[in-house]
Structures are given as C-alpha cells and as structure tokens.
Known about the structure:
Elements: E1 2-5, H1 12-20, H2 29-35, E2 41-48, E3 51-61, E4 64-72, H3 81-95, E5 100-106, H4 110-119, E6 122-131, E7 140-148
Parallel strand pairs: 4-5
Antiparallel strand pairs: 1-2, 2-3, 3-4, 5-7, 6-7
The structure holds coenzyme A (COA).
Coenzyme A binds at residues 22-23, 69-72, 77-83, 105, 109, 111-112, 114-115, 118.
Amino acid sequence: MLTLRPLQRNDIPILTQIDAVSNDPPWNEDNFSRELNWTHSLSRIAIWEGVPIGFGITWKVCEEAQILEIAVLPDYRRKKVATHIVRELAMTAEKLGCKKMVLELRCDNRVALKFYENLGFNVVGKRKNFYAPKGSNQNIDALLMACALPL
Ligand SMILES: CC(C)(COP(=O)(O)OP(=O)(O)OC[C@H]1O[C@@H](n2cnc3c(N)ncnc32)[C@H](O)[C@@H]1OP(=O)(O)O)[C@@H](O)C(=O)NCCC(=O)NCCS
C-alpha cells in the first residue's frame, strides 16, 4: 500500500539518494535540511510497503503553491506515485488559500512536461539559462508551468 506523509529530518539521506538518480542538479542534504525549517514549505514522502520511493516539495507563497522538487525512484515510475504526491500537495495548498500551482522545469525534460500536462498544467513562460547541470558549462532554459487549483 502507498502512504504519504510530510518529510522528517531522518528521511534526508534517502531523499538525497532518490534525488541523485532523478534530478540534475540534484539537491544535497543541506537543501533538504533547510526545507524542514521553513513554515511555508509543504512536503510529502511516498512510502511503498515500508520503502521510501519518492517525494515532493512545494512552497506556499501568498496565493501560489510553487513546486520545487519532485522525484520517484526509477523502478517505481508510471504507477501514479507522483500524481498522488502532487494531488495531495495541491489539496493541502488549496486548503491554506492557494489559488494556483506553479513550477519551473528544464526545457529538455519531456517526461516531466508530459507528467504535468497530464495533471492539467500549461506552459506559461520561459526563463533563459535557468539551470546549471552538473559537469556541463552550458545552462539550460526553464519552462514555467501553471495550473489553477483545485487540480
Ligand atoms: C516526472 C516523475 C516525477 C513522474 O513520476 P511518476 O510517478 O512516474 O508519474 P505518474 O505515474 O504519476 O505519471 C502520470 C502520467 O504522467 C505521464 N508520464 C509519466 N511518465 C511518463 C513517461 N516516462 N513518458 C510519457 N508520459 C509520462 C503519463 O501521462 C502518466 O500517465 P500514464 O502512466 O497513465 O500514461 C518521474 O518520472 C521522475 O521522478 N522523473 C525524474 C525527476 C523529474 O524529472 N522531476 C520533475 C522535474 S521537477
């Protein structure tokens, strides 16, 4: 059975492992640690039969919920885990007064683009040279996506 709960400090090592095989550049332990200190940070870790397999982190900024990072371990993808994470974060943000959900996405991340389109997000803009991937001297543009709440 899949369960979701907010991140806790002792999740940090596994979160960095999940992110290291998912996002480029990945978050380090300090990045995750800082999130646990913010009151505007909403998070969920997904646990499948006792095993942490994914997570999502969102900030509530006034009436917007901004998705910062989301990842699911490769072996557990295409099972709607991330869909559950985003829907639950969206529901929580809406209860706190958010009217829309927004995010930035690497413009070459076709899988994530499909994932967010499937949830009802649209591309609403672009940020030039937003990402600096590890080991590359070329920055990558970000797409801005947004969706009205409720999802
Ligand atoms: C993007 C990501 C979080 C999606 O997680 P997931 O749990 O596999 O996604 P879901 O199973 O909820 O997918 C829901 C829908 O999104 C779309 N989708 C997801 N993965 C897809 C893929 N590889 N190819 C095409 N469409 C895809 C499909 O429409 C899918 O529905 P379907 O399986 O019924 O066709 C996951 O692929 C991942 O961790 N990627 C690396 C990290 C990343 O890119 N994060 C986002 C940037 S912030």
